[in-house]
Specification:
It is a single chain. The protein has seven helices and twelve strands. By secondary structure, the protein is of the alpha+beta class. It has two domains: 13-66, no CATH class; 92-223, no CATH class. The longest helix is centred in the N-terminal third of the chain and has 23 residues, at 44-66. The radius of gyration is 21 Å and the shape is elongated. The two termini are 23 Å apart. 22% of the residues are buried.
Length: 225
C-alpha cells in the first residue's frame, strides 16, 4: 500500500514478481531449447514439456506486467478498481455495506476469500463500467454462482443452470440497458440474493487479507463523517 495526499493505493498480489517471472521463463526457455537439441530422441517428449513449461512461465510473467501498477485507489469520494480490461468505481455515498461474504457449508458459515460491496443503486456502476470489464467480471463470477446450486460446493466447480441472465435491465430513470451490461446487472441481483452483495473483489487483488481490507475501508468511510 502507498498513499499520496488523501489517496490510498493498493497493489495487487497478482502484480508481484512479474518481471522476475518473465525473466525466469525466458532463461528456462533458452535452456530448454538447448537441451531439446542435445537430448536423445527417446527424451524428446520430456524436452517438449520443458519448453512448454518455460513458455507458460513467460506468459504468466507477461500478464503480471500488463496489470495496472495499482489495482485499487481509495480517496474521499470513491473506490476505483483498475484492471487491464478496464475499471469500475463506486462512490462512498453509494455503498450500503462492506464485508467478507460467507457461504453455508454444513452447519456453519464459511467466509469467502474476497470482499463484497452492497450498493444502494446500480445505475452509476453499470453505466460507467466498460463492456470488456463487464464481460470479465461475469466470467469471474461463475464460481460464485455455483454456490447457489450446491450449498456444499466448496471449490466452485459444481454445475449452475443460471450462468447467464440474458434479459434487459431497466435503470431508475427508465433507460433500458441491454447486452453485456444488462447481463452484469442481472447477475448482480442474483448474487445479492445469494450472498447479500453486488460487487466482489478477490483477495488476489489486494495487498492484505480481505478482513484487513474491510477494516481499512470502514475506517475510510467513518473518517468522511
Amino acid at each position: 500500500m502507498s498513499s499520496t495526499n488523501d489517496i490510498i493505493f493498493i497493489k495487487s498480489t497478482a502484480k508481484r514478481n512479474g518481471l522476475t517471472t518473465l525473466l525466469i521463463g525466458t532463461i528456462a526457455l533458452l535452456l530448454s531449447a538447448a537441451m531439446l537439441i542435445a537430448l536423445p530422441d527417446w527424451l524428446f517428449l520430456i524436452g517438449i514439456f520443458m519448453v512448454s513449461g518455460a513458455i507458460v512461465t513467460m506468459l504468466i510473467g507477461w500478464f503480471k506486467i500488463r496489470e495496472p501498477e495499482h489495482s485499487l485507489s481509495v480517496d474521499r469520494e470513491r473506490i476505483l478498481y483498475q484492471h487491464r480490461c478496464g475499471q469500475w468505481q463506486i462512490a462512498w455515498d453509494n455503498i450500503q455495506r462492506i464485508d467478507c461474504p460467507r457461504v453455508q457449508q454444513g452447519l456453519s458459515l464459511t467466509p469467502l476469500n474476497m470482499v463484497g460491496f452492497k450498493l444502494k443503486h446500480y445505475d452509476d456502476f453499470i453505466l460507467a463500467i466498460s463492456p470488456r470489464l463487464a464481460s470479465h467480471l461475469i466470467m469471474e463470477q461463475r464460481a460464485l454462482l455455483m454456490h447457489s446450486e450446491d450449498k456444499s460446493c466448496a471449490t466452485g466447480g459444481c454445475y449452475s443452470s443460471s450462468l447467464f441472465e440474458d434479459k434487459p435491465y431497466q435503470l431508475a430513470d427508465g433507460q433500458v440497458v441491454t447486452g453485456i451490461k444488462a447481463i452484469l446487472a442481472n447477475r448482480m441481483i442474483t448474487l445479492r440474493q445469494i450472498f447479500g452483495y453486488d460487487v466482489f473483489l478477490s483477495a488476489s487483488e489486494l495487498d492484505r487479507s480481505p478482513e484487513a481490507f474491510v477494516s481499512l475501508l470502514r475506517d475510510c468511510q467513518q473518517s468522511r463523517h
